[in-house]
């Protein structure tokens, strides 16, 4: 079955261009023009990916993504007329997978859609069995894309999950920021070093909420991050 792509865009010309480009490449595009309509359909229907304009009439694309992340890890590509770096950083840090600035090439957007879908299906979000190494405080369930810490289910964003998953799978290894960008985001040029630091910070906060006496994610000054011996049960 062809992948259904939700296009959330209030400019008819742009929506028509994307609809044609995606449809001609075998996708099934579905277009809506309002944020609330998009969220209603995302809750009720199955989509492979959403392309969301940042400047919608009834809400920002950022707000759509924040609300979406409360119930889904669906891949998201932002469309925007803005070029400010801070907007790009915000978009990526709240859970978007890519950020395309207008004007853009429809063929490029289709290529990015394919790359993100291939990446999301191959990064362990929907594969694998639950793993609970002896003595570990973490339980990783790759099939459900979930992690438990000391028996408590963690409420993680897509990239928090992928980042923590990588650290859990390599408990004795130290990863530099560049390695984490490449292994988790896989497009180092599209994100920034501070993105890694921000996600580490939010992960630590969620882990401390369960056990305030330990910090299992260790910072190795000048080297990067890794799980410490405190990651034991």
TrEMBL record:
PROSITE patterns: OMPR_PHOB, RESPONSE_REGULATORY. GO terms for biological process: regulation of DNA-templated transcription. CDD domains: trans_reg_C. This is DNA-binding response regulator CreB. One of its GO terms (molecular function) is transcription cis-regulatory region binding. The keyword Methyltransferase does not apply. Residues 4-117 form the Response regulatory domain. The modification 4-aspartylphosphate is found at residue 53. Pfam families: Response_reg, Trans_reg_C. Keywords: DNA-binding, Phosphoprotein. GO terms for cellular component: cytosol; protein-DNA complex. Coiled coil: none annotated.
């Amino acid at each position: 079955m062809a992948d259904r792509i939700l296009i959330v865009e209030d400019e008819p010309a742009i929506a028509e261009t994307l609809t044609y480009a995606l449809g001609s490449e075998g996708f099934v595009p579905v277009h809506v023009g309002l944020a609330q309509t998009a969220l209603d359909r995302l809750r009720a229907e199955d989509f492979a990916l959403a392309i969301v304009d940042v400047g919608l009439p009834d809400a920002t694309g950022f707000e759509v993504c924040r609300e979406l992340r409360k119930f889904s890890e669906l891949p998201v590509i932002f469309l925007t007329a803005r070029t400010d770096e801070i907007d790009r950083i915000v978009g990526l840090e709240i859970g978007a997978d890519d950020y395309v600035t207008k004007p853009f090439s429809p063929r490029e957007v289709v290529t990015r859609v394919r790359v993100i879908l291939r990446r999301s299906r191959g990064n362990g979000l929907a594969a694998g069995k639950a793993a609970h190494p002896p003595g570990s405080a973490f339980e990783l369930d790759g099939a459900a894309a979930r992690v438990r810490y000391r028996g408590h289910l963690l409420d993680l964003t897509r990239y928090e999950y992928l980042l923590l998953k990588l650290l859990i799978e390599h408990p004795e290894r130290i990863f530099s920021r560049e390695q984490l960008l490449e292994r988790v985001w896989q497009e180092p040029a599209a994100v920034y070093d501070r993105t890694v630091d921000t996600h580490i910070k939010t992960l630590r906060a969620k882990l401390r909420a369960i056990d305030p006496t330990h910090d299992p994610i260790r910072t190795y000054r000048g080297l990067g991050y890794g799980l410490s011996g405190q990651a034991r049960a």
